[in-house]
TrEMBL record:
GO MF: glycosyltransferase activity
GO biological process: lipopolysaccharide biosynthetic process
Domain Glycosyl transferase family: 215-372
Alphabetically ordered keywords of this record: Transferase
Presence of the UniProt keyword Transferase in the record: yes
Domain of life the protein comes from: Bacteria
Domain Glycosyltransferase subfamily 4-like N-terminal: 81-188
Protein name, as recorded: Glycosyl transferase group 1
UniProt-listed Pfam families: Glyco_trans_4_4, Glycos_transf_1
Organism of derivation: Bradyrhizobium vignae
Species lineage: Bacteria, Pseudomonadati, Pseudomonadota, Alphaproteobacteria, Hyphomicrobiales
Amino acid sequence: MFSRKIRVLHIIASVDPAYGGPVEGIIQQDRVSRWIEREIVSLDPPDAEFLHNFPIKTYALGSYKTGQDWSKFLRRYGVTGKLIPWLKSHVGEYDCVVVNGLWNFSTFAASRVLPGSGVPYFVFTHGMLDPWFRDNFRAKHALKQCFWLFSEGRLLSRANAVLFTTQEERELASTMFWGFEYNKRVIGYGTSSPPPVTAAQEGSFRATVPQLKARSFLLFLSRIHPKKGCDLLIEAFSKLASEHSGTDIVIAGPDPSGMIDGLRKLAADCGIAERVHFPGMLTGEAKWGAFNCAEAFALPSHSENFGIVVAEALGCGTPVLLSNKVNIWREVEAAGAGFIEENSLEGTTSALSKFLNLAPEERQQMKLNARNCFEQYFNIEKNVEAFEKLAADTVGKQ
């Protein structure tokens, strides 16, 4: 494909695993890439603990900020005086650049340096142009339109390609902002095959949720955020809990929005407090134990561009119960790997009910379908080749 490895710089706000999908996607791609050598520049503080064993060389140029509201905003946005000079000095050392995500200082810095640099670059939006944000946060959307005109829009309009994981994500993004046109490209995405199943995985998971004991459960495993539909999951399950007394719900993940106390109260108000478990963020063997032990994985999200966790569940042969706002729902439905419903209480209840009422042999077939769905659509060893070819073709034209 290429006479040497292509040097790619990834620009991203953070490589903290608590932020989920984008950084996990970079790690998984790097594990299977044959033709690409990756490095990362981020807004993380250089002494961040999660950098100690991070598998890709990362230049962490951020710093924590303290003080009044304005400085809190700067910290959230990730402002640092180091990134723009660093990019100007080093971007020419790479064959191409991938900007991951939008609406933070790393994309502003990229918009100041990459256009006109002579280095080809791509922007992976990672679902950040989904209309859900516009429809639910009108004031923020108006502010983002301003940013779009002097930062993000400029960045995207000069990119060699703006990358989307599905055709649906691409089409939804087209309605979001005015002022710039850009080259849209759908490219495959996925994750590596899960590790082999071991008894240690289940033991590690069960140890994080001792109250669950050996009961069966439905799993939510993702960042806990208003758009993810955790409230729908709890309310929907409460309507079915008495009929399925041997099954609980596990809601696992980091809670940057501070939602867990409210979700615990909701579970108590619904009369199922003892049936809903919150083990926090699961990693390593505990995470794989959760996926492998779960009867099904549930994600009734209001907005989800891809969902690495969905691909991970499918890779484990775990059926998935999704809303039709998870942009890979069509592939799941076509494969018979789960149930798809509206992102509403009625829809979520229907998806859970359909699954919980399956006969054992039907559940077993759905597990086989889930694994086949992963291999057909979401195994990164197949999907990474598409980006390698895009990068090689683009670099070769320079």
